[in-house]
Write a structure and sequence with these properties.
Rossmann fold, disordered N terminus, disordered C terminus, Toll_tir_struct_dom_sf, ADP-ribosyl cyclase/cyclic ADP-ribose hydrolase, NAD, hydrolase, TIR_dom
Amino acid sequence: MAATSSSSYSSQEKYEVFLDFRGEDTRDRFSGHLYHALRQKHILTYKDDENLESGHEISKIMEAIRESKICIIVFSQDFASSTWCLDEVVRILDCKRDGNDFIITIVYEIDPSIVRKQNKSYAYAFTKHEERFKASMDKVQRWRDALKEVAGLSGHKNKA
């Protein structure tokens, strides 16, 4: 998930990097350090605020994804449990297909095969999503497909 601060976001700002991560897993560790390192290099990076609120903020996030040149996805143990993170992955892939994003994936403190094969904690998360979204199984399938596609990337630029 991603913003320098949602309150400082303006429609004229173009982000160079969108940082997608599960806050509870990595906000105060890896993702936080990565964000600060990028900012020290004067790279305008969108990282979420800890207190994002509902649909209003998610639309700002989706716009930041579209405007960013690079999207970094940090996969961690509980990444797949976040519907926001999964929605962001779908949006990132949509933008990549339009030819305007470079995607870098990082697998943090988890075996990459868990992400690719969607087993262990990822299988558990998807079981929960299937229970919660019984009426929207197409949404869950989009998340699964997007995760599989992105998990197979190690930094990829679409050559449209």
